[in-house]
Amino acid sequence: MGTRIFPNDDLHRSVLRLPFFIVAAIAIAACHPGNEQAKQLRQSCEAGEAKACNQLAVRLQKGEYVLRDDREASEMFDKACDKRFGEGCANLGLAYQRGKGVKRDSVRALKLFQQGCEQKAMEGCAQLGVLYRKGAGVPKDVARSASLFQQACTGNSQLGCANLAALYDAGEGVAKDAARSAQLFKQSCDAKIPLGCLGLAKLHSTGTIVALNDSIAAEMFGVACEGGEIEGCFRRAVAFETGVGVDQSSWRAAMLYEEACEDKYGEACARLAVMYEKGFGVERDVKRAAGLRKDACKAGYLQACDKAKAQS
């Protein structure tokens, strides 16, 4: 008797019950060139090629033709960094900053960003610039951050360009330049940088330099929100609450205010408090509204403080 393809009859029957298109999809995915590329990257990394380790780590973080594994990704970034591959150091710095696959460690992240930048990894320079602008782990130095963002942007880091655009927009560390800011915001947004889309959305919402367009602004605020820019979530919520640029939707506004409030965006907490107080988009809950006003005050939204005290 010949060898059975499916020794396990139950497995055989279950496979036969699968719709044909699912079986076909599994077969196609298994044969996809991406699988072979991932295999080759692993072999090259094991052979000591730093760039391959970094590329494999990026795939591991995304689950791109490999099983997603943040811990192994951080180990691969570490291997790349040990071999003085700057991008590996910068990416490992982000992992430590976010606690992704490793224990969160801002001091270690700072050192890795510095190491990456020194080794010409422009994302490391951009991240280092963010820390200098905020004064996070280093003395606040906006001029230094502007220099780092310029270096990163010139080196084709769109994150650097987006942050440089924000400085030109505010006139921090550089002379205020609305036209330059708009150009850099668009350039970085086109490259899917959330901060760039947030900045460009603000310009469209006011008609500054670019055309006034509430629909585009609302859409871009959504892109920024999905990319982790909490102000984007707040402004998208305002659009849904007011119906400016989108169809009015109180419940969607409430959901986005909730998301922003959880990230300590004070005005979002205050606006959500009003919605709970009046029962707009949520079930009326005066006690919840009072708690949200306290959260808004703690987050630095001073307009909510007096009413929060009065309700205590």
Give a written overview of the molecule.
With 312 residues, the chain is mainly alpha-helical. Among the domains are: 46-120, Tetratricopeptide repeat domain (Serine Threonine Protein Phosphatase 5, Tetratricopeptide repeat); 126-188, Tetratricopeptide repeat domain (Serine Threonine Protein Phosphatase 5, Tetratricopeptide repeat, Alpha Horseshoe). It is 71% helix and 0% strand. It is built from 18 helices and no strands. The protein has helices at residues 9-17, 20-30, 33-46, 50-62, 70-82, 86-98, 106-118, 122-134, 142-154, 158-170, 178-190, 194-206, 214-226, 230-242, 250-262, 266-278, 286-298, 305-310. Helix 5 packs antiparallel against helix 6, helix 9 crosses helix 10 and helix 12 (194-206) packs antiparallel against helix 13 (214-226). It starts with 8 loop residues before the first helix and ends with a helix. Mean pLDDT is 91; it is low at 1-7 and 23-27.
